[in-house]
Design brief:
heterodimer; A: about 260 residues; alpha/beta; Rossmann fold; about 40% helix; B: about 260 residues; mainly alpha; 11 helices; about 0% strand
Chain lengths: ~260, ~260
């Protein structure tokens, strides 16, 4: 299992044409099997952080490394779950999940077992031969998560994965993700603009400022979650009613709000 | 079987046939020297189908034209689609090839006929070359646009999954671009038929264009109309076949759009 490290990372878009600095001196370390969420106002560089960890973009300065190795290109050791699912519409659910395993050149029998396991994990049994367009948005995102999990990656990079889902489906998926994280903890970098989602899911929450974005503070959620025993509540709404949850949510909310006011003034 | 819109279309065709009969036969407003009557058309069709005209029967002419179109079209696909995909994928390839392409593209395919005849003579090879050139352009442009319009996350997902280069092309880029590729193929097929007739008008000893050419010299309006109608029907039939292939290949896409 891997770790992620952002070390004095800057990102400038269009450096040849004046340049817009979107990330300013980002320092963040995500330990093994730790779930870290980055929240921030939209348009801040939070997705850019994830894209650099994935290897889709390179930092302008500083270093992004995963498990101690500098990131140079995308690869199956860093599985990405995209906001718009990014499933291959001409492939069935099974073929979508299997592609990464074929790329790893695993033998057929082993692939079939792993795909079956991933389908079961995400409650997708019975949909293996369906095409993505035949599934609801929530189901499609389950496929995308299965496609990422089946790779057994060092780290999981989730870019507002529930942002395109309706409210009800979103809640179900959040609960599901918590279940997965408790059963089989992974190293996760999770991007969202929804404060409640971040507090509910993450071990730590990093709050980002507006452009040029810096990490303003990092809150330790895990300590409070364990102390207040959130996990005994199966339903998200029960957790969200707890005083400790409300307190954390308000704290982050205020932090983000100060940001906006400061910028307007 | 036939939908409401299908019946409307058939109605239009029937009305045109009636109008044709009225103008030429019933009233004689259009003289037979300018446009054939249905009876003359039928007699010409019978003549070329059974006894033959311009050195052969209709089937011989039609098959020959069909063969030229199929070969020119096939060569255009084999060369044009990969080139378009490559230009779409690689900015360097685009930078290298596009300027040449932009200059060659406005040259009408028919302008290549003299050169083609000079190089390859009056035989089939020159015609195939000209058909190829005309069908080549839409295939390249649409394949190119197909790649450029692929959703970026789809490519990123494939790369994140560690997809090797060859598989990226065959299993991601080509299928993602295929709706546009098929649009290009349909335009290419149309261009192929247009060019075929022109090429056969210039120099041929067999083919639909040759029928048209001979009928013009013979002042034979009935046979001219036969040639035109046969080209129309062949073009329609091949387009329909291509549509079937498209429906099969893009089942995932057709269903996704519904």
């Amino acid at each position: 299992m891997g770790s992620i490290r952002f070390d004095k990372v800057d990102k400038v878009f269009g450096p040849n044409t004046g340049g817009v600095k979107v990330l300013d001196n980002i320092n963040l370390e995500i330990g093994e099997r730790e779930f870290v969420a980055i929240v921030g106002p939209s348009g801040c560089g939070k997705t850019t952080c994830l894209r650099m960890a994935a290897g889709f973009e390179a930092p302008s300065a500083g270093l992004v490394s995963v498990s101690g190795r500098p990131v140079t290109a995308p690869g199956p050791d860093r599985a990405v779950v995209f906001q718009q699912f990014a499933l291959f519409p001409w492939k069935t659910v099974r073929q979508n999940i299997e592609l990464g395993l074929r790329n790893k050149k695993l033998p057929t029998g082993e692939r079939a077992d792993l795909v079956a396991g991933a389908l079961k994990l995400m409650n997708l049994e019975g949909h293996a031969e369906a095409f993505p367009h035949q599934l609801s948005g929530g189901m499609q995102q389950r496929v995308a998560i299965a496609r990422a999990y089946v790779l057994d990656p060092e780290v999981l990079l989730m870019d507002e994965p529930f942002g395109a889902l309706d409210a009800q489906t979103r809640v179900v998926m959040q609960e599901e993700l918590v279940r997965l994280a408790r059963v089989n903890p992974r190293t996760v970098l999770f991007i969202t603009h929804a404060v409640e989602e971040a507090v509910y899911l993450a071990d730590r929450v990093a709050v980002m400022t507006r452009r040029p974005c810096r990490i303003k503070e990092v809150l330790d959620i895990r300590k409070i979650r364990q102390a207040e025993n959130w996990d005994k509540h199966a339903r998200i709404e029960d957790v969200m009613d707890l005083e400790s949850f409300v307190h954390l949510r308000t704290q982050i909310w205020k932090s983000l709000r100060e940001e906006k006011v400061a910028n307007v003034v | 079987m036939l939908g409401r819109r299908g019946w409307i279309g058939l109605g239009t065709i029937a009305a045109l046939l009636v109008l044709w009969f009225v103008l030429t036969t019933a009233t004689g407003w259009v003289s037979a020297a300018r446009f054939p009557s249905p009876a003359e058309f039928w007699a010409s069709l019978w003549q070329v189908s059974v006894r033959g005209y311009a050195g052969g029967q209709l089937l011989t002419h039609a098959l020959h034209s069909l063969k030229l179109v199929a070969m020119g079209f096939a060569v255009a696909i084999i060369t044009g689609v990969p080139l378009g995909l490559w230009m779409g994928w690689s900015r360097k390839a685009e930078a290298a090839i596009n300027p040449v392409f932009l200059i060659i593209r406005p040259i009408p395919p028919l302008a290549w006929i003299p050169l083609a005849i000079l190089w390859l003579g009056l035989g089939d090879a020159a015609k195939i070359m000209v058909i190829w050139f005309s069908a080549f352009v839409p295939s390249v442009i649409n394949s190119f646009a197909g790649v450029r319009n692929i959703d970026r996350p789809l490519i990123e997902a494939a790369r994140m999954l560690g997809t090797p280069h060859g598989r990226l092309v065959t299993e991601v880029i080509a299928p993602a671009a295929s709706p546009m590729i098929f649009t290009g193929l349909r335009l290419s097929l149309q261009a192929a038929w247009t060019t075929l007739v022109a090429a056969e008008l210039v120099g041929a000893l067999v083919g639909i264009g040759f029928i048209l050419n001979m009928a013009q010299q013979d002042l034979y309006p009935g046979m001219i109309l036969v040639g035109m109608v046969v080209v129309g029907l062949l073009g329609w039939a091949t387009t329909w076949l291509l549509g079937l292939a498209e429906k099969r290949a893009l089942a995932w896409n057709v269903a996704a759009r519904d």
